[in-house]
């Protein structure tokens, strides 16, 4: 498994409701576990001897401070009060990820209000620099959902 695949896996687990994941194939094994303090611990072998392992702890900041903002950042804000969803259904791929290019009219999320699903779309082109709301969380009117740069 490549390092980039491991980081992609960490991001997918971070945005899901999964709290623990284990995978092994021959001499290689990965164990990812969300800790209560918003950390993920990843253990992998450092040699062909499966008893020699290395643990990596990655802090996962799920608050809005997980931003890569600069003064050029713009926000897409919630046009109504409701529950924000990053994907079209549970277990589906999120509409946008940090670093992804978005175009005017792209769906960036859904807000459920009064049993109605409302697509939230980008108002202009840009690159996503932060996602400020967790999947399934309530949002207020005019609350920033994500930030982007043109």
From TrEMBL:
Location of the Lipoyl-binding domain: 73-149
Key words of the record: Biotin, Fatty acid biosynthesis, Fatty acid metabolism, Lipid biosynthesis, Lipid metabolism
Annotated GO CC locations: acetyl-CoA carboxylase complex
GO MF annotations in UniProt: acetyl-CoA carboxylase activity
One GO term of the biological process aspect: fatty acid biosynthetic process
Superkingdom of the organism of origin: Bacteria
Function: This protein is a component of the acetyl coenzyme A carboxylase complex; first, biotin carboxylase catalyzes the carboxylation of the carrier protein and then the transcarboxylase transfers the carboxyl group to form malonyl-CoA.
PANTHER family with a match to the protein in the record: OXALOACETATE DECARBOXYLASE ALPHA CHAIN
Name of the protein in its database record: Biotin carboxyl carrier protein of acetyl-CoA carboxylase
Natural source organism: Lachnobacterium bovis
Highest classification ranks of the organism: Bacteria, Bacillati, Bacillota, Clostridia, Lachnospirales
